[in-house]
Input
Amino acid sequence: MNASTATSIQSADDANRKAVHSDMISPRFYTTDFAAMDRISVEPVRAEWDRMMAEYEGDNNHDHFQRDEAFAGEMRDGMASLSPEMRQEFLDFLVSSLTSEFSGCVLYNEIRKNVSNPDIKQLMTYLTRDESRHAGFINQSLRDFDLGIDLGNLKRTKKVTFFKPKYIYYATYLSEKIGYARYITIFRQLEKHPEKRFHPIFRWFERWCNDEFRHGESFALIMRANPQLLRGANTLWIRFFLLAVYATMYVRDHTRPMLHEAMGLESSEYDYEVFRITNAITRQVFPLALDTDNPKFRRGLERLFAISQAMEQAKARGGLIGKLKQGLCAGQALFAFAGLYFLPVIEQEISPQVRMEPAW
Ligand SMILES: [Fe+2]
Ligand SMILES: [Fe+2]
Output
């Protein structure tokens, strides 16, 4: 069975429903404790912070998210080369990417409106600007297929999860950096194999992911300025978020293997390359990394994916048996996740300097 059959996108309604829908692996919307965020200080990293703000102010991508003349033709020819299944997985990729970009946009904008801390407010203004460009650019591509997402409606209707500020720092830091690693890996692959670039949007990924890289740098600076976030019992939370973000990405990517095949990639190979890059980057802030080369780690992720497939089948089956099977799968997933959580991690020295170059 094609993994993505259950969520096939045929109409704008399907696309909008998919964006609003929440499950274990779909991108979520978040909110936080704004008063606590007001109390955060970046004084210990002031020099690096001000340099970063100057980069945001310079806005080197202000003219990047515009289509060029070749766009329409490339899109027509490229999409014609895809099988219906590949096309479906690409649309799924666009909708989930748009949802994550817009999730960032909504969260950053909420923080911007609700804090008075001038450093945080200024940062959030720039982050909102960038993410709204990213989301808008993807939505334009969805509109080409008459699948545009109504962002106002998405904001009003999607379920919002509350996270304490420290969870926001861990989770958004990781999702920005993993976003960078994902986009740059695709960009480099298609740079080597331009014949596999079936949609022009991938040409935008290099400068695009430098935005994501810089967004991650901002959260790295916040955490380094408040080093209690990176010590003691908090390392257990870091471990949790690393695993949650890696495992979600792995399961989500493996539900659309043909998308990667169309780019000449294999989902596992792609994911482990993304983990390798992300692990290297996180030395700037986390005292530990997951050992993604450990065969037990790899088997654990395979198991989580198998459980998520069984869960989809149980949902499709429905009825009492379907419900019971879903409960069983949830228990198995929890057990597999715990098994992964307790695997040995790699302890690492945090790099003396916080800022890093996007050198991949
Ligand atoms: Fe973004
Ligand atoms: Fe971002």
In short: Residues 78 and 198 are 4 Å apart (CA to CA).
